[in-house]
Amino acid sequence: MLRDTLKQEIDKLNESQLKIIADFIASVKLQTQLVPTSLPFWQSATPAERAQDFRGWVEQLPKTSISLPDEAFDRGSIYE
Prior knowledge:
Elements: H1 2-11, H2 15-34, H3 41-44, H4 47-59
């Protein structure tokens, strides 16, 4: 029903109005095409892709031999 109503209204428009409608439709199409690509990686990636991306991120971290002392991992030292 909406489609038929819109068709009737479009038939009443002059050429300059039709040009504006055509530009608007092109804009809407462009926006709807960009939506899927604008999703964050973590929303569109599979679990395997997210894991691979995380491993790649870890690999690029600086490699140092500095670590926390063993007592830092002791639960009791948290409350001291």
